[in-house]
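Q: Give me a backbone?
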Amino acid sequence: MVHGISGKSRSVFIFGLVLMLLVFVSMASAAEQKNVLVLNAYHDGYQWTNDITKGIMSVIDASKVKVYIDYLDTKRNPGETYQRGLDDFYKTKFKGVNFDAIVVSDDDALGFLRRNRDKMFPNVPVIFTGINWFTPEKLGGQKGITGVNEDADVQATLDLMISLHPGAKKIYVVNDTTTTGKVVREKFNQIMPKYQGKVEFLWLEDIEMSKILETVSSLTADSLVLITVFQKDKAGNFFEFSESTKMVSDASKVPMYGLWDFNLQHGIVGGMLTSGFYQGKAAGDMLNRVLRGTSPDAIPVLMESPNKYMFDYVQMARFKIDRAKLPPGSIVMNQPGANVAVSRTFIWGVGFLMVLLTMGAAILIYKRL
C-alpha cells in the first residue's frame, strides 16, 4: 500500500520550494543589477556637484543600479602633482569592480578618464556632464562616450537684463581670472559687439574683493551688475560662490544677475541659468539608455545645455521687478504663494477627512439606537 505525503511533510516540502524560489529570484536580481560609477571632479558639499549628483539619482532606478559616487576634489587641490596621485590611487580603489557605465561631471573628471580609461576601465561606456563649452576635441578621439554640454547662455541673460531694465546704460561684470573665468571672458568678447551702442561693459576682475564692494555700493540707477564666476580675488582670497555672491549683492545698490544656478538664492535676481540639477538629470537619462543596451556612440551629445530662466522672488521684491514681465515658463524661487497653496490643500484635505469621520460616527450611533 502506497502512503501519501503527510500534512507535515507536505508543509516542509512547500516551504523548501518557496525558499529555493526566493533564492533564485534574489540571485537573478543580483545578476541583473548594474554597477555605475559617478565620478565628480569636485568635492562633496560643493553645491554644483551635489546638484548634478541629485539630478543623476533622480532618474535612476536604485533597485536595479548600484551607484558608486566618488569625488576627485580638484577644486581644492589643483595641479599636476595631485592629479598624478589620483591616477595611482584609483588604480587600486576600484580594481575588483566591473562597471557597466561611468558618469563623469566637469572637465577635470573627463580629463582623468581620458588619461586612465584604457588602463582602469577598458571599453566601459562613459557619459559626461558639466563640460564647459564642449567640443569633440575634448574627447581626445575616444569612442563610447556621450554626454551633456555646459553652455552658459550669456546672450540670453544680457538680453533679459536689458528687457527688464530698459534704462540701463552700463553693466558691471564681476569675473575672476581662474581657468573658467578666462573662458567666460572669451565668450563675452565674442558677443560684446552685438551690444555696441546699447550698453557699456565695465569689468570688475583681477582686483581685490574690497574694490568690487566699493564700486557696486556707489552705482547709479542706470547700472546693473552681472556676476559670472568669482572664487579668487587678486589678493588670493578664496570664496565659495555663495559667499562672493552674497557679499556683492548685499553691497550693491542695483540689481545683480547671474549665469549659474549656484548663485540663485544668494543674491542674484536670476537669469538664464545653467543648472547643475538639470545637467545631471539629462546625463542620467542618457545613462538609462546605455544601461538598456544603447551604445553611447548612438546617442548624440546634447549640445543645447538644459538651462532655465530662474529667479529669486526675494530679490525681485527688493528691486520691484514685475513677475508678469518674466519670460514664459520661468521658475521663481521663494514665492510666498507656493507655501500658502500647499497649506490650503492640506487644510482642505484634513477638513474633508474630518467630515467623513463625523458622518461615519453618526451612522454607527444611529444604527445602535
Remarks:
- The longest strand covers residues 34-40.
- Residues 341-369 form one domain.
- Confidence is low (pLDDT under 50) at residues 21-31, 339-343.
